[in-house]
Design goal:
Length: 210
């Protein structure tokens, strides 16, 4: 199996697993709403199913995404700023791992226990890292002839820090879960575009405009 094919299989498996994790987690978590609750609240300290969702959700997803990144690294046609961006994409598996190593308090407040404060600090690093990573990968040479793909990645990268700051505003609380999941969808689409545009094994970048 070619490494490019392996990386796409791992990416597809990661996306499907995350979708299942989100829906199953919401179904078994009492009072959980995908519209208003953060993803981090699946395993909030002291809440039902926290231990199960820590390992079957966050740890498993972090492992899948790490495998995808490891498979993609040798074939990512990136250089300069886009190479820096690719390595910043390791913020993605890290963002799930932080849910396991520093779970948030119930409600995921701005201030709380030591674990909550550590969670908040690492979340800033993860979200800004993912945003910068996606935006910088859009400058890879493979996207030069795919202006719409490049624009989508660049705008997704900008959206990450902007919407991250918006999600913590009290007025946005009823919709912060939805905003977070929309960012997840945009990120997944960006990774798919990367996989078909700049993850290649000894081939020229494809030609096109979309």
């Amino acid at each position: 199996m070619e490494r490019a094919q392996l990386s796409r299989i791992l990416l597809g498996a990661s996306i499907l697993y995350v979708v299942a994790f989100y829906f199953i987690g919401a179904a078994i978590k009492p009072g959980y709403s995908q519209l208003s609750n953060f993803v981090s609240e699946y395993n909030a300290t002291g809440t039902p199913w926290a231990g199960t969702l820590t390992y079957s959700g966050y740890v498993a997803t972090a492992a899948l995404l790490s495998a995808f990144m490891g498979a993609a690294a040798p074939i990512a046609q990136v250089s300069g700023a886009s190479r820096v961006g690719f390595w910043l994409l390791w913020s993605l598996p890290f963002s799930f791992l932080l849910g396991a190593i520093a779970p948030c308090d119930p409600g995921c407040p701005l201030e709380g226990s030591t674990s909550q404060n550590l969670h908040n600090a690492m979340a800033v690093v993860a979200y800004f890292g993912m945003g910068a990573g996606v935006a910088l990968v859009s400058f890879a040479a493979g996207f030069r002839r795919f202006k719409l793909r490049r624009a989508f990645l660049f705008l997704t990268g900008i959206a990450f820090p902007v919407l991250f700051l918006a999600m913590v505003e009290p007025d946005v609380a009823p919709w912060r879960g939805l905003i977070q999941r929309l960012l997840d969808v945009a990120l997944a689409a960006s990774l798919v575009l990367m996989s078909v545009t700049v993850f290649r094994t000894g081939r020229r970048a494809p030609q096109g405009v979309a």
